[in-house]
Amino acid sequence: MDAHATAHVTAATIAEQSKPRVNLPIVLKIDLSLLEAALVAGLTERGVAPTSFRTVWSVLRVSPATLLLFLSITSTAVGCNARQEAEAIPGARLGMSPRDVRERFQSGGEGTWQSSVGSADDTTLEWRAKGDAARVAQARFEFHLGMLVAVRAHVRDTTPAESVSATPKTVTLRKPSAEGGTDVTLLARDCPTHHEEAESLASRAR
Description:
globular; 25% strand
């Protein structure tokens, strides 16, 4: 190898060695820590207990696909999405854990809870009022991977006609019930187990 070629190789080697080296696992860890702090602050405003969130987060951070689903669902925590949910089901917000739903759900009266485990990672909580005092007569809360992704409830308030409202992340159906009152359905559009149903409803939104 002549002197010119040797000098060229040496220069290339020095340039390569002088490049800044980034430890990707460390950067990812820092980014996830910042993301966790931001989510805790945002979800606390919606009534999601930090301890419940961190329990789910410890699982989510090791699964990129599940983490993306979680971020998509919980992005409904701000703006018109949160207001729409608050109007639909008092105290219940998509992304909550079963524990949060039990503690935060505002039925307007006394009632009883019943839980059941479905297939794969799906579970449900059902609430039924005692007597006629409660605003919500009954409600079914559906969870995927420990996060609330659907609510189906019967409220005593009446509505004159069926209506569907949608945002990029949620869809809400309100329709008069034959028994009186209103049937309310709230779905997360990004949940794979409810995607088809949610998009079908969203196509009817005005």
